[in-house]
Write a structure and sequence with these properties.
This protein is of the alpha+beta class. The protein has helices spanning about 30-45, 50-55, 60-65, 75-90, 110, 120-125, 160-170, 185-195, 250-255, 315-320, 325-335, and strands spanning about 1-10, 15-25, 95-100, 105, 130-135, 135-140, 145-150, 175-180, 200-205, 220-225, 235-240, 265, 275-280, 285-295, 310. One of its GO terms (molecular function) is serine-type peptidase activity.
Length: about 325
């Protein structure tokens, strides 16, 4: 039997925080692992109240439903399937379970929607002479609009690299920042890029922390402030492109950018993922990762299920066949008008 080690994952805050919590011990068998996982989520997951309001989630009813499927003679594969299905009731892309033989994940947050993105069209717009800096792919389009494609915030973005990008694109009439397909990464990197689009500190949202085991036990909301970069900043029009695959730290980036001046968001609603990830371990050694600290926009609205664009534009079949990206072309129209 094991006690649980809870770890705050640093990819969101960029800070390492750990805490050991003594919990009731459970046997390393199907029933014990089920009870342990349900309780871990019950005491630490942060969106129970919100999801009860949104679609009627009742975690106690979930317990009754899945506890009936647990049998002491079931195999690890069978147990993994039942526990994975239970976690899927949360409809949260940040909820994952890891075993030596498989990972349980909830992909419907993006797979149930059109991608509104084409890698082949991206290659057409970038051409063969685009530049790369800190993972950012960028170039000047033929109408003198700057274009930056940011596929991830997983890796560091250097201040010097951003200065070079901004300096190179400075003569452009406007800028398109494309984060379609960006599944997140380090929140500090999302902040660093967004800080290039404001000249003053701006209030962009709130964060809360769990203070107890109850579903509603949270600290008072703490303001999130985006501070301007000390490097080269952009002052002309900006259009941010989004789709359903924009998640976690990238979702936060869109939230920040909607608060910056001269910014318009175009595309599809983002995928969400507005909770700070947290991890724990079950008696059998399987790991579980889930949202533990909720984050909100500046109006204290939860962005767990995504952020609406200013203009909801989809990639059309006709444009795709013509080699045109409908969403990029709409962004160009906004900048040129």
């Amino acid at each position: 039997m094991k006690k649980f080690l809870y770890v705050i994952i640093p990819l969101i805050l960029g800070l390492v925080q750990t805490s050991c919590v003594d919990e009731e011990e459970y046997a390393d068998n199907p029933e014990g692992n089920f009870e342990a996982l349900w309780k871990i989520m019950d005491e630490h997951y942060c969106f129970f109240d919100y999801k009860n309001e949104e679609y009627g989630l009742d975690w106690n009813q979930v317990y009754l439903k899945y506890s009936q499927q647990i049998d002491q003679g079931m195999t690890d594969d069978q147990l993994f399937e039942v526990l994975g299905n239970m976690l899927a009731e949360l409809r949260d892309g940040h909820v994952n379970m890891y075993s030596p033989f498989d990972n349980a994940r909830y992909w419907s947050w993006k797979e149930d929607y059109p991608t509104n993105f084409s890698d082949s069209l991206l290659r057409k717009y970038l051409g063969t002479d685009y530049k790369i800096a800190s993972g950012l792919q960028y170039r000047k389009l033929d109408d003198n609009i700057g274009y930056i494609y940011c596929s991830s915030f997983e890796n560091g973005i250097g201040d010097g690299n951003l200065d070079e990008v901004m300096f190179y694109l400075a003569s452009c009439t406007g800028l398109i920042v494309d984060v379609r397909g960006n599944g997140g990464g380090q929140l500090t990197m999302a902040e660093k890029l967004a800080a290039r689009f404001t000249d003053e500190s701006i209030h962009v949202g709130y964060i809360q922390h769990k203070t107890g085991t109850g579903h509603s036990d949270f600290s008072e909301p703490e303001e999130q402030i985006l501070k301007p970069s000390s490097g080269i900043r952009w002052h002309k029009k900006v259009v941010v492109l989004t789709n359903r695959e924009v998640f976690s730290a990238a979702n936060e980036f869109v939230k920040y950018m909607k608060c910056c001046p001269n910014v318009t968001v175009v595309g599809d609603k983002t995928g969400g993922g507005a909770g700070m990830p947290f991890s724990s371990e079950m008696p059998n050694g399987w790991a579980v990762r889930f949202s533990a600290c909720p984050m909100y926009d500046k109006d204290m609205q939860c962005t767990e299920f995504g952020i609406e664009p200013d203009y909801n534009i989809s990639l059309t079949d006709d444009d795709f066949l013509r080699g045109r990206d409908t969403i990029i072309e709409y962004a160009r129209t906004i900048i040129n008008n």
